[in-house]
Design brief:
Blueprint lengths: L1 E3 L4 E3 L4 E7 L19 H12 L4 E5 L12 H15 L6 E4 L3 H9 L4 E4 L8 H7 L4 E5 L17 H18 L7 E4 L8 H9 L12 E2 L5 H5 L4 H4 L9 H13 L4 E4 L2 H14 L1
Helix pairs in contact: 2-3, 3-4, 9-10
Length: 285
């Protein structure tokens, strides 16, 4: 299975690790850790370099937090955060994904040589699908999100979440193909934590293989998510105190389960540890 992107044909016969690069002061896990002052990108550049040294197959750069309750960011601010990092990342020899829903940002990063658009809105914003469709070969990841980041956890989904998410993603992929985008360019993400309860998130993992019937590669993004804290069984978790920095082991377990159930890309903060865990999985499978 090949994922066609702007500059690379990514071989998905083995699972690939996508390293997260948050150029934000407010992302739920590492907001502000690498981007501390506007205009100072040295730490972000070094983080990109380190993720590749740790074994990342791809980088995913995002300038706007989409954590629950996040307030939308202006176009000008997102461009100011993201473009310098993309300019650096496209020189590093790996596919570069940009996590954005704004068509203007999509066009700008593709013009700089980015390979993939990773959109939590699944190209539902006006003009977004047109930007991707007119590009000859960029990859795209379509994610399911219930409602929108500011309000998505106030009223999570109801009913059979697997059936609803699968229907949504199949329709989004079909619509994109109808616009002229080849199926080899499309990857799907069920959207863990985006308008779903803890139980619903884990049902998506338990029944993940059902999504393989859609015929597209799956990207799994469990890294450091709050649902992992809720199910870890520790006293700190029971008290609601298992912070995001304490969720490494549950994140690795979820990544391995996702891969074992058919995911071809795992989007993670902890690249080195995930690469090591996947090496054990590959030997023992």
């Amino acid at each position: 299975m090949i994922w066609q992107t702007s500059r690379f044909q990514i071989d998905l016969s083995q699972p690939r690790v996508m390293g997260i690069v948050n150029v934000t002061p407010d992302s739920f896990f590492d907001g502000g850790k690498y981007f501390t002052q506007p205009g100072n990108f040295s730490d972000v550049f070094a983080h990109c370099d380190q993720l590749i040294s740790d074994g990342a197959d791809l980088l995913d750069i995002g300038g706007e937090s989409t954590r629950p309750g996040a307030v939308p960011l202006s176009l000008a601010e997102e461009l100011a955060r993201v473009l310098p990092v993309v300019r650096h990342a496209v020189k590093l020899g790996v596919p570069v994904s940009v996590d954005t829903y704004k068509p203007e940002v999509m066009q700008a990063v593709l013009d700089l040589g980015a390979d993939i658009i990773n959109d939590v809105w699944a190209l539902r914003q006006p003009g977004a699908a047109q930007v991707v469709a007119k590009h000859p070969s960029c990859g795209v990841c379509l994610m399911h999100m219930h409602r929108e980041p500011l309000t998505m956890q106030r009223a999570p989904m109801e009913g059979d979440v697997v059936a609803q998410v699968l229907t949504f993603l199949e329709r989004a992929a079909h619509d994109l193909q109808s616009a002229g985008v080849d199926s080899a360019r499309i990857v799907l993400d069920v959207g863990i934590g985006f308008g779903k309860t803890v139980a619903q998130n884990f049902s998506l993992l338990a029944r993940q293989k059902e999504f393989l019937a859609a015929g597209y590669p799956l990207l799994a993004a469990w890294s450091r998510k709050s649902s992992l804290a809720a199910m870890s069984g520790s006293s700190r978790a029971a008290e609601g105190r298992l912070e995001s920095e304490d969720r490494l082991v549950p994140s690795l377990a979820a990544a391995l389960l996702a891969v074992d159930r058919g995911a071809r890309i795992v989007r993670v903060h902890d690249v080195r540890e995930t690469v090591q865990a996947l090496k054990v999985w590959a030997v023992a499978r």
